[in-house]
Amino acid sequence: MSNGIEFRNVSKRYGDDPAAPLAVKGISFEVPVGTLTTILGPSGCGKTTTLRMIAGLESPSSGTILMGGRDVTTLGPAERNVSMMFQSYALFPHMNVVDNVSYGLRMSGIKKPEAADRAREALRGVGLVGFDQRLPSELSGGQQQRVALARALVLEPDVLLFDEPLSNLDARLRREMRQEIRTLQQRLELTVAYVTHDQSEALAVSDQIIVMNQGEIAQRGTPEQLYASPESEFVAGFMGEALVFPGVAQPDGRVQLGPLTLTPRHAVPPGVVKVAVRPEAWQLGAAVGLSAQLRKSAYLGNFYEYVFDTVLGTVFVVSTDLSRPLPPGAQTTLALSSYGVSVVPATLA
Ligand SMILES: Nc1ncnc2c1ncn2[C@@H]1O[C@H](COP(=O)(O)OP(=O)(O)O)[C@@H](O)[C@H]1O
Ligand SMILES: [Mg+2]
């Protein structure tokens, strides 16, 4: 079984009105067995719809869904071995921790003592020991999260789905939990589809990222590919704080960006292009480059944020050189490193 999940040209339209817009527009992708794929994109782009079609909670209007090589397009949720963990973890408030986790097993006919044993095992797996008799209201947000995770894992699903599971947690807990989910996924070799709108979360946990925009896949690849080589302005902007400048591709393949000349990683046809630059791609104090005057700076502890005025307009720079901070109004020269600079077509926004 090479593919855990496979979508072939899947579209989804809600309701019966054929004139209604498609929520998902002919998307194709695979989630290989034992890997974690995130579906990343802004609100309303079709992430939850895609996840619910994997779960069998929505059926596609057209296209084919395979799981483990089997066509499951018309099968309901009970006929697919899939568990889903939602944004609100929806624990039963009147049931203690063990009963919450055993619930699914009990529903599938497993006797109470065995279900409780397996629930305690799952709770140990997510690092929640000693809370078996507590009610959800007696747990912290992070602990409730672990209960929800144990409840999904105890069913030993072929595929585990997460829909923005961390959005109710504070920033520190979010970082901690996302690492734990990743560690657990790798240890148990789970096949996971994980929805988020947070690019740093996607970068931190994924084998593969699928970026969606308005019901379509804008790009998919490894975190490194998406961050370092976005193929469109949308992906460049969504995957980080890139600023996008207009450039001109020359017949010799090089790209002119104001006074700067750069050689793109991928060949581009001559004409107008856009150049997306990460704030960490600028090198300060180069011998030749773009003249820049410092307008604003902020000290963030482990780096400086600088805002410069240049002939290209405002340029945002992140510098980890903490030993020589620039004074207000400083005049310097900016050059581009080879990393963090992407040339994207001007037409494909
Ligand atoms: N049950 C529904 N009925 C009608 N339209 C829906 C329904 N669920 C979602 N949509 C629409 O489908 C599009 C995609 O929604 P969704 O998949 O929830 O996006 P996301 O999870 O990326 O925020 C949105 O335009 C949304 O309004
Ligand atoms: Mg959603």
For this entry, give a set of tags:
349 residues; alpha+beta; Rossmann fold; OB fold (Dihydrolipoamide Acetyltransferase, E2P); 2 domains; 6-stranded mixed sheet; 5-stranded antiparallel sheet; 8 helices; binds adenosine-5'-diphosphate; binds magnesium ion
Short overview:
The protein is α+β, with helices and mostly antiparallel strands and 349 residues long. The protein is 24% helix and 34% strand. Strand 12 (255-257) and strand 13 form a beta hairpin.
Q: Which class do the helix and strand fractions yield?
A: alpha+beta
- Biggest beta sheet attributes: 6 strands, mixed
CATH class of the largest domain: Alpha Beta
What do we call the CATH homologous superfamily of the largest domain? P-loop containing nucleotide triphosphate hydrolases
How many discrete structural domains? 2
* Oligomerization category of the chains in this entry: single chain
Label the overall shape.
globular
- The residue fraction in helices comes out at 10-25%
Number of helices: 8
First-residue to last-residue Cα separation: 37 Å
Q: Let me know the number of strands.
A: 20
Using the CA coordinates, give the radius of gyration. 24 Å
Strand order of the largest sheet: 6-7-8-3-9-10
Give the integer mean of the pLDDT values: 92
> Helix-strand pattern, N to C?
EEEHEEEHHHEHEHEEHHEEEEEEEEEE
Can you list the ligands bound to this structure? adenosine-5'-diphosphate, magnesium ion
Which CATH architecture of the largest domain is right?
3-Layer(aba) Sandwich
